[in-house]
C-alpha cells in the first residue's frame, strides 16, 4: 500500500482522482484511466491492446510501433503510485493472439518487471486475447468474482453487478459553449464500464447504440477524462 | 522540322470551320501556334470568354491533321471533373465538323472500368483527365507505353493549381510525365492573374519558366453593390435580409449565377430563395458535396437553358461554359479580387461586352470589403498568392506511385522530384528520409520486425512489397487534404434509400439522433451513422441546424484586407458605401474608435458571461491565427484563463475568463511573444495535431479510403492524435513530425508579417475598455469558427459544471479503508 492520505488528498483536490460508490463498495477512479479498489488493494485496467500498432502494420499501414512501449510506461507510473497488491487487466490486453511474441525484448522485460512486482497479476481474457501465453507471467481467467460483483471483459446477463471493459467508452459534453470530449468511466446501478487504456485505442460514444443497449436507458453516471483531470459530467 | 515551318498557319479546313462559325483566328491564337511549337512550356493568360481552351487545343489539332498518329498525342488536365465533360462536348463539335482523324476521350474517377481498361490498351489521341486520374495512370506498368509518344500536355485553369497541395501533386505528375516523354510540350491556360511570372515558373520545368502570352482585358465589368431597402445586419453570413432583392435581380435576368462562399451558405440561400420564389422559377443548387448524379442533372439542365438561376459554391467557378448567363450575384464577401473577377467572368462569354454583377454583402463589414474589391477592379489591381515550397507529405505518395509503375532507384526519383518547380529545393537528406519512410516507416526505434512497403531486389531497385500495398496505394491516390467524408443516404423506410451526397466526417460526428440539418435543398433528420454512411430521413418544418461543415471556406487575400483598412481610414471615401454601412461606421466612431493606419485598435468588453479582447490587426487570417495561438499561450501563463479565440482577416478575438488592464495588455502585445511562446506553442498546439492528421493520411501512414472490409476501417479509426503523441514522445526526430511542422508553418503561420506588425505597433496600442460589444466587433465575435484553448480556463469551466457533493462523504470512508489495510 503506497498511497497515503496526503497523496490522495492532493490528487482529489487537483481533480486527478475521484471516489465512486458502486455495488455498495468504494473505489477510486484515476484520471489516467484506471480504477483502484482500496478494500482489496487492487488496481484494475482494461483494454491495453498491446501490439495494436504492429498488428495494423501487417496491413500496409506504416504506423509507428511505439504503442506498446508507451502503454507500458504509462502503466508503470501508475503502478509505482499505488503499489497495489494485485493488478487486474480486464481483457483485450493484447490486440491479437500473437501480440506477446511481437513485443521487443525490452518491452517483454518491462512487462515482466511489472507483473513480478505485485503479489498477483490477473489477465482476464477478452475477445482479442482468448489465451495469454505463459511467458507473459501472471494468471489468467475468464472472469473474477468480488462478492456479488463479476469482473469480466464483456458483460453477461444474470450477474447482479459487473465491472467490464470492451466498450472503450467516450463522452462529449458542452459546458458554457465549450466542447469537452474524452474517454470516460460510465456506470449505472448494475454495470460499470472501464475506459480503454491502450495507446492506440479509439472510443465509442456513450450515446451510440451498443452502449445505450447495455445500459437499457437506465440512468448513467459518467466520469470524463480530460487533459489529465477527471470530472463527473 | 515541318512543324516549325508551318506552325504559324492552320490547315485550310480550320479556316473554313472558323468562317462557318463567323469567327476568325485571333492574334494571340496565331501566336500560340508558333509558341507551342517553339517553347517547352507556354502560358496563355486570357480573360474569360476569349476562347482560351480552343486556343490551347488548336496547335494539337493542326498537328494531328497534318500527321495523324496512333495513340496518345495530347493530354488535357483539368482541376474539375465536370470541366472534362464540358470540354469533350466543345471539342468534339469542331473535330466532327472538320472531319479530323482525331479520337477524344475523357477519363476521371467516374469513368466505367471497362472503358478505363480499353483506354490503357488503346489510348485516344486526346485524353481529357484530372490530376488524380493521371497519377493513377502513371502508377501502371504500361505508363511508359501509354505516354511514351506524348507531344503536348494542356493544363486548364492553371492558376487554381498554383500554391496549393493539389498543384504540388500535379507538378510531380508533370515531372514524371516529362521523364517518360522527354520532348513533351507544356501548355498552361490561366485566367487573369496578378503575377504571371509565378505561374510561368510553376508551369515550366525547374529553371525553365514558361513563355507567357497575355491577352489584355479590354472591357471592365459592370459591378453594383446592393444598397438594400432592408436593414443590413451587423453580423452573420447568410444575407437573409437581402433575399427579396436577390430574387428580384434573378427575375430580371435571363439566367443568373448566384455564388456563395461555403456549402452551408449554398444550402441556406437556396432554401431562402425558394421561400421567395412565388413565381416558381426554376432555381437549382450546385455544390461539391452533392452526388454525381445530382450535379450531372443540374449541369445538363443548365446547358439546355431551362434554369433561371443556380446557387453555387466555387465548384462552378472554373471555366465550365454555361452559355447564356447574363448576371452574376455574389452573396457574402468576395474574399479576393482575382476570385471575384473570375466569378464575374462567368457572366457573358463575349469579350467586348461588360459582364454584369451584383454584390450582396451579408453584413456591414463585408460591405466595406465588397467596396474595396470594386475599387481594386476599377484600378486594374489584382491580388496574388506567392509560390510556396511543395508539401512534403505528398512525396511518399509520389515515390510509391513511381515504384508501382516500375522498380526504381531513389536517385532517379529524386531527380524527377527536383524537376517539379515547387520541389526544386528539396534536400537530398529530406528526400532520403521520406524515401525511408515509404520503404519501412522510417522508425529508428523498434529496429526489428518492421513492416516493409517496398522491397529491394538484387539490383538495388525498389518495388512494392506486395499486391496489397499496390492496391492500397491506388485506392488512396490523390488523397490530398481535408477531413474524412461520409456518404449521405436519404432513407425512405428501414435502411433503404438513395445516396444524395457527402458531408465531412466531423460534421456528422456533431449530430445526435433527431438533429435536423439542411442538405441538397431539404431538411433531413439524422438517424445514425451506419457503414460509413450518414442515414437521414426527410422531414418537414422545424428550424434546421445549419450544416456547419467547413467545405469551401476561404481566406480573404491580404491585399483586400489592406484595401478595407484604407477605406476605414478615410471617412471621405465612405460616400461610396450604402447608407446603412456609413451609419454603422459612424456609430463605431462614436461608441469606440475606428482602426487607423498608425495604431492598432484593441477593444475589451464582456459578452456571453465571458470577457472578450479584440485586436484589429488587418494582417490576414494566417497571421491572426498565429497571433491567437501565441496570445492565448501567454494568457495561460499570466493566469488570464483564455477559453477560445476566433480569427477573421481583419482581426483576432480572444474569449477569456479574466479581465485585462493596460499594463497586462502591454505584456501581451509584445514582439518577444514570437520568441518565448512560439517554440512552446509549436510543441503543444492542437493545430499541429490537425496538420498531422492530414500529413498522416496524405503520406499513407493511415488511410482515408478503406478496403471493402469494414473490419479494417474500424481498426484504423483511432485518432491520428494518438499516433502524434506517441511519436512526439518516443521518436521526436521522425521525418513526419518535421513535415507536419513545415506544413503548419506553410498553412498557418505568417511569421514575418506578424513580426513586422508587432514591431510596428509596439507601444502604439489604442485600447478601448467598453461596457458592451462594439458595432464593429459584432461580425468578428459572431464568427463561430473558434479555436478552443485547452488549459486552466477549460478546467475551471468543467469543474464548475461537475458538482459532485457525495465525493466528500465518500472520501472519509475511503480514508478508513486505507488505514485498515
TrEMBL record, chain A:
**Could you tell me which residue ranges the Calcineurin-like phosphoesterase domain spans?**
43-144
Gene3D superfamilies from the UniProt entry: 3.60.21.10
Q: Which residues, by range, are in coiled-coil regions?
A: none
Family annotation (SUPFAM superfamilies)? Metallo-dependent phosphatases (SSF56300)
Transmembrane spans = none
Kindly give the InterPro entries that the UniProt entry links to this protein: Calcineurin-like_PHP (IPR004843), Metallo-depent_PP-like (IPR029052), PdeM-like (IPR026336), Pesterase_MJ0037-like (IPR024173)
One Gene Ontology MF term: hydrolase activity
- State the source organism's domain of life: Bacteria
**Which named protein is this?**
Calcineurin-like phosphoesterase domain-containing protein
User: Which species is this UniProt entry from?
Assistant: Alteromonas confluentis
Amino acid at each position: 500500500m503506497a498511497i497515503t492520505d496526503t497523496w490522495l488528498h492532493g490528487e482529489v483536490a487537483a481533480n486527478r482522482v475521484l471516489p465512486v460508490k458502486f455495488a455498495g463498495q468504494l473505489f477510486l477512479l484515476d484520471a489516467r484511466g484506471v480504477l483502484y479498489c482500496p478494500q482489496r488493494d487492487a488496481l484494475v485496467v482494461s483494454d491495453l491492446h498491446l501490439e495494436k500498432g504492429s498488428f495494423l502494420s501487417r496491413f500496409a499501414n506504416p504506423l509507428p510501433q511505439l504503442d506498446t512501449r508507451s502503454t507500458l510506461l504509462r502503466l508503470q507510473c501508475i503502478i509505482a503510485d499505488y503499489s497495489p497488491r494485485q493488478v487486474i487487466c480486464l481483457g483485450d490486453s493484447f490486440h491479437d493472439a500473437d501480440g506477446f511474441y511481437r513485443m521487443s525484448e525490452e518491452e517483454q522485460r518491462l512487462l515482466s518487471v511489472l507483473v513480478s512486482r505485485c503479489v498477483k497479476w490477473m489477465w482476464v481474457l477478452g475477445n482479442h486475447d482468448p489465451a495469454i501465453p505463459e511467458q507473459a507471467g501472471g494468471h489468467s481467467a475468464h472472469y473474477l468474482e468480488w462478492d456479488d460483483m463479476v469482473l469480466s471483459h464483456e458483460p453477461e446477463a444474470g450477474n447482479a453487478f459487473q465491472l467490464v471493459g470492451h466498450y472503450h467508452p467516450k463522452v462529449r459534453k458542452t459546458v458554457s459553449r465549450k466542447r469537452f470530449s474524452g474517454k470516460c468511466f460510465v456506470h449505472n446501478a448494475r454495470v460499470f464500464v472501464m475506459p480503454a487504456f491502450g495507446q492506440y485505442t479509439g472510443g465509442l460514444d456513450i450515446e451510440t447504440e451498443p452502449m445505450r443497449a447495455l445500459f437499457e436507458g437506465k440512468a448513467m453516471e459518467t466520469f470524463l477524462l480530460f487533459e489529465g483531470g477527471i470530472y463527473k459530467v | 522540322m515541318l512543324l516549325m515551318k508551318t506552325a504559324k498557319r492552320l490547315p485550310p479546313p480550320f479556316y473554313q470551320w472558323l468562317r462557318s462559325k463567323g469567327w476568325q483566328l485571333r492574334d494571340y491564337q496565331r501566336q500560340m501556334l508558333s509558341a507551342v511549337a517553339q517553347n517547352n512550356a507556354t502560358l496563355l493568360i486570357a480573360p474569360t470568354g476569349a476562347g482560351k481552351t480552343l486556343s490551347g487545343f488548336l496547335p494539337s489539332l493542326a498537328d494531328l491533321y497534318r500527321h495523324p498518329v496512333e495513340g496518345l498525342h495530347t493530354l488535357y488536365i483539368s482541376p474539375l471533373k465536370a470541366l472534362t465533360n464540358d470540354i469533350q462536348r466543345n471539342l468534339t463539335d469542331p473535330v466532327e465538323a472538320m472531319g479530323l482523324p482525331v479520337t477524344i476521350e475523357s477519363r476521371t474517377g467516374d469513368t466505367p472500368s471497362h472503358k478505363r481498361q480499353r483506354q490503357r490498351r488503346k489510348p485516344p489521341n486526346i485524353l481529357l483527365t484530372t490530376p488524380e486520374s493521371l497519377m493513377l495512370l502513371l502508377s501502371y506498368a504500361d505508363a511508359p507505353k501509354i505516354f511514351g509518344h506524348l507531344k503536348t500536355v494542356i493544363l486548364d485553369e492553371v492558376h487554381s493549381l498554383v500554391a496549393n497541395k493539389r498543384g504540388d501533386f500535379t507538378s510531380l505528375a508533370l515531372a514524371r510525365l516529362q521523364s517518360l516523354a522527354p520532348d513533351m510540350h507544356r501548355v498552361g491556360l490561366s485566367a487573369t492573374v496578378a503575377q504571371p511570372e509565378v505561374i510561368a515558373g510553376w508551369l515550366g520545368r525547374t529553371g525553365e519558366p514558361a513563355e507567357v502570352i497575355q491577352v489584355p482585358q479590354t472591357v471592365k465589368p459592370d459591378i453594383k453593390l446592393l444598397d438594400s431597402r432592408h436593414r443590413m445586419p451587423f453580423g452573420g453570413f447568410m444575407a437573409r435580409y437581402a433575399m427579396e432583392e436577390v430574387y428580384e435581380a434573378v427575375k430580371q435576368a435571363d439566367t443568373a449565377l448566384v455564388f456563395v462562399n461555403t456549402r452551408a451558405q449554398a444550402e441556406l440561400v437556396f432554401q431562402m430563395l425558394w421561400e421567395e420564389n412565388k413565381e416558381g422559377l426554376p432555381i437549382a443548387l450546385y455544390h461539391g458535396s452533392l452526388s454525381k448524379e445530382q450535379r450531372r442533372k443540374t449541369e445538363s439542365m443548365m446547358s439546355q437553358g431551362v434554369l433561371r438561376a443556380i446557387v453555387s459554391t466555387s465548384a462552378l467557378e472554373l471555366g465550365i461554359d454555361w452559355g447564356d448567363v447574363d448576371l452574376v450575384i455574389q452573396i457574402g464577401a468576395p474574399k479576393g479580387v482575382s476570385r471575384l473577377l473570375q466569378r464575374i467572368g462567368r457572366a457573358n462569354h463575349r469579350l467586348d461586352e461588360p459582364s454584369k454583377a451584383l454584390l450582396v454583402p451579408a453584413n456591414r463589414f463585408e460591405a466595406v470589403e465588397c467596396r474595396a474589391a470594386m475599387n481594386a477592379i476599377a484600378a486594374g489591381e489584382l491580388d496574388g498568392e506567392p509560390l510556396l515550397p511543395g508539401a512534403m507529405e505528398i512525396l511518399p505518395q509520389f515515390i510509391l506511385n513511381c515504384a508501382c509503375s516500375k522498380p526504381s532507384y531513389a536517385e532517379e526519383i529524386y531527380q524527377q522530384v527536383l524537376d517539379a518547380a515547387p520541389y526544386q529545393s528539396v534536400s537530398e537528406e529530406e528526400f532520403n528520409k521520406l524515401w525511408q519512410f515509404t520503404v519501412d516507416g522510417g522508425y529508428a526505434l523498434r529496429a526489428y520486425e518492421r513492416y516493409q512497403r517496398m522491397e529491394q531486389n538484387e539490383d538495388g531497385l525498389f518495388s512494392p512489397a506486395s499486391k496489397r500495398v499496390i492496391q492500397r496505394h491506388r485506392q488512396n491516390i490523390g488523397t490530398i487534404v481535408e477531413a474524412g467524408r461520409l456518404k449521405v443516404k436519404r432513407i425512405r423506410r428501414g435502411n433503404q434509400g438513395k445516396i444524395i451526397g457527402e458531408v465531412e466526417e466531423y460534421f456528422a460526428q456533431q449530430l445526435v439522433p433527431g438533429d435536423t440539418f439542411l442538405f441538397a435543398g431539404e431538411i433531413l433528420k439524422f438517424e445514425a451513422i451506419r457503414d460509413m454512411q450518414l442515414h437521414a430521413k426527410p422531414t418537414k418544418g422545424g428550424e434546421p441546424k445549419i450544416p456547419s461543415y467547413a467545405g469551401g471556406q476561404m481566406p480573404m487575400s491580404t491585399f483586400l484586407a489592406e484595401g478595407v483598412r484604407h477605406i476605414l481610414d478615410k471617412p471621405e471615401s465612405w460616400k461610396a458605401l450604402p447608407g446603412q454601412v456609413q451609419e454603422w461606421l459612424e456609430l463605431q466612431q462614436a461608441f469606440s474608435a475606428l482602426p487607423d493606419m498608425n495604431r492598432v485598435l484593441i477593444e475589451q468588453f464582456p459578452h456571453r458571461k465571458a470577457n472578450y479582447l479584440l485586436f484589429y490587426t488587418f494582417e490576414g487570417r494566417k497571421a491572426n491565427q498565429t497571433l491567437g495561438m501565441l496570445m492565448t499561450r501567454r494568457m495561460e501563463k499570466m493566469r488570464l484563463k483564455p477559453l477560445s479565440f476566433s480569427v477573421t482577416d481583419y482581426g483576432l478575438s480572444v474569449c477569456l475568463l479574466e479581465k485585462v488592464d493596460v499594463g497586462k495588455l502591454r505584456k501581451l502585445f509584445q514582439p518577444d511573444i514570437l520568441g518565448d511562446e512560439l517554440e512552446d506553442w509549436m510543441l503543444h498546439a492542437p493545430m499541429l495535431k490537425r496538420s498531422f492528421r492530414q500529413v498522416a493520411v496524405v503520406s499513407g501512414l493511415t488511410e482515408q479510403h478503406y478496403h471493402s472490409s469494414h473490419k479494417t476501417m474500424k481498426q484504423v479509426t483511432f485518432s491520428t492524435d494518438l499516433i502524434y503523441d506517441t511519436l512526439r514522445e518516443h521518436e521526436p526526430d521522425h521525418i513526419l513530425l518535421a513535415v507536419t511542422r513545415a506544413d503548419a508553418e506553410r498553412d498557418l503561420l505568417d511569421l514575418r508579417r506578424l513580426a513586422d506588425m508587432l514591431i510596428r505597433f509596439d507601444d502604439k496600442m489604442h485600447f478601448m475598455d467598453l461596457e458592451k460589444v462594439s458595432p464593429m466587433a459584432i461580425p468578428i465575435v459572431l464568427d463561430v469558427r473558434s479555436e478552443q484553448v485547452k488549459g486552466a480556463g477549460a478546467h475551471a469551466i468543467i469543474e464548475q459544471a461537475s458538482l459532485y457533493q457525495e465525493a466528500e462523504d465518500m472520501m472519509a470512508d475511503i480514508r478508513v479503508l486505507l488505514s485498515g489495510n
